[in-house]
Specification:
The protein has a single domain, classed as Hypothetical protein apc22750. Chain B (Translation Initiation Factor IF3, 2-Layer Sandwich). It is 35% helix and 43% strand. The longest helix has 24 residues.
């Protein structure tokens, strides 16, 4: 599956637009990660526990988006983006979305 953030794919022609696709995941922070993050926040620096959690969530969102595109018969996704938000006090949603297409090599 080709995934690009651009409208076109280099050396490919878009022959069919299948439609919008997305992959969504919601992750909850654990109390242990919150405690470590609070302590790290006092001294500054990257909070690795949250970085890893969000990186895993983005990968899962992409995987779900790809499965959605495959189910539609697409072989590529253009204009891919991420969006995120918070749900409640300790949950984050990550969505990967784009446009599923059929792309053929020129």
């Amino acid at each position: 599956m080709i995934i690009v953030t651009t409208e076109n794919i280099v050396n490919h022609k878009i022959t069919e637009v299948k439609g919008p696709v997305f992959g969504l995941t919601v992750r909850a922070r654990g109390i242990g990660k919150d405690i470590v993050a609070s302590l790290k926040g006092l001294v500054g620096g990257e909070i690795n526990q949250y970085t890893e959690m969000l990186e895993d969530a983005r990968k899962q969102a992409i995987d779900r988006m790809v499965e959605n595109a495959k189910a539609m018969g697409a072989n590529a996704i253009i204009m891919m983006r991420f969006d995120s938000g918070e749900i409640g006090q300790n949950m984050s949603e990550i969505v990967a979305y784009g446009t599923a297409v059929i792309a053929e090599k020129e």
